[in-house]
UniProtKB/TrEMBL annotation:
Residues 1-133 form the ABC transporter domain. InterPro entries: ABC_SmlMolc_Importer, ABC_transporter-like_ATP-bd, ABC_transporter-like_CS, Mo/tungstate-bd_C_term_dom, P-loop_NTPase, TOBE-like. It holds the Pfam family ABC_tran. Keywords: ATP-binding, Cell inner membrane, Cell membrane, Membrane, Nucleotide-binding, Translocase, Transport. PROSITE patterns: ABC_TRANSPORTER_1 (PS00211), ABC_TRANSPORTER_2 (PS50893). PANTHER family: PUTRESCINE TRANSPORT ATP-BINDING PROTEIN POTG, SPERMIDINE/PUTRESCINE IMPORT ATP-BINDING PROTEIN POTA. It comes from the Bacteria. This is ATP-binding cassette domain-containing protein. Gene3D superfamilies: 2.40.50.100, P-loop containing nucleotide triphosphate hydrolases. One of its GO terms (molecular function) is ATP hydrolysis activity.
Length: 258
């Protein structure tokens, strides 16, 4: 009957409102809700039909940074509690890494790599994936000498990963994440390290991004290192400081030169 159907609808609405944490706000108009609350309403409406797949098209893009961080954790928790498959479209790499069980990276409408977030981040298949998911240093002008061995500005470097096949003597571009660059303050050149000069530093709270140039390549090649803030303080770096950089072989990828 009609009253029974209405009671069922009201129960379902109350369940969904509780599910998305909006208890006590049933009587409010959309304009009276915050951006984060409006997104929760949109989620509740989407879940009302008990879908097999939940499609989220950049659901957090219009929200403030702190609200985004809080709500993405809530969405992930909600998805896991309900056990519903969710497909989310996003241009925000941090959202993809923190929320996804599996990431598909598309370039001009073509899927170029798919896998778990850590796999995508640690072993990017192409330079596009490497630069789209996280920050990546690209060091052009390298040349393959042998299996995993490359020359860059007269320095021999080892790259454990070669996502794109390279022949001996072929030009290559080496890639390494800023947080994987091992920076030591020293003006004394070493065979196993690249010499660099500090251009500027960017304080980011818990970390410091150091922008440098490799002095032994021609032209000088820019490279960045991400250091814990405490390490940056201890090193006492400033513009013009000469340092030595280590590129751990297991963190270096070699790509076909563009």
């Amino acid at each position: 009957n009609t009253s029974g159907a209405r009671s069922e609808i009201e129960r379902r609405v109350d369940d969904l409102i509780t599910l998305v944490g909006l208890q006590g706000m049933q009587a409010k108009y959309p304009a009276q809700l915050s951006g984060g609350q409006q997104q929760r309403v949109a989620l509740a409406r989407a879940m009302a039909l008990s879908p097999d797949i939940l499609l989220l098209d950049e659901p957090l893009s219009a929200l403030d940074a702190q609200v985004r961080i809080h709500l993405r954790a809530e969405i992930k928790d909600l998805q896991q509690r309900l056990g519903v498959t969710a497909m989310m479209v996003t241009h925000d790499q941090e959202e993809a890494l923190t929320m996804a069980d599996r990431i598909l990276v598309m370039d001009h409408g073509v899927v170029v790599q798919q896998g778990p977030p850590r796999e995508i981040y640690d072993t990017p298949a192409t330079p596009f994936v490497a630069s789209f998911i996280g920050a990546m240093n690209f060091l052009p002008g390298a040349r393959k000498l042998g299996d995993g061995l490359y020359d860059l500005g007269g320095q021999r470097l080892t790259a454990a990963r070669e996502p794109q096949p390279l022949g001996v003597g072929q030009a290559a571009t080496l890639g390494i994440r800023p947080e994987d660059v091992d920076l030591k303050r020293s003006a004394i050149a070493r065979d196993d390290r690249l010499q660099a000069r500090v251009r500027h530093m960017e304080f980011r709270g818990p970390s410091t991004r150091v922008s440098l140039v490799l002095t032994q390549t021609s032209p000088e090649t820019p490279i960045e290192a991400e250091l814990p803030a405490a390490s940056a303080r201890e090193l006492g770096l400033e513009r013009g400081t000469v340092v030595q950089l280590g590129l751990p072989a297991g963190r270096v990828s070699a790509y076909v030169a563009a």
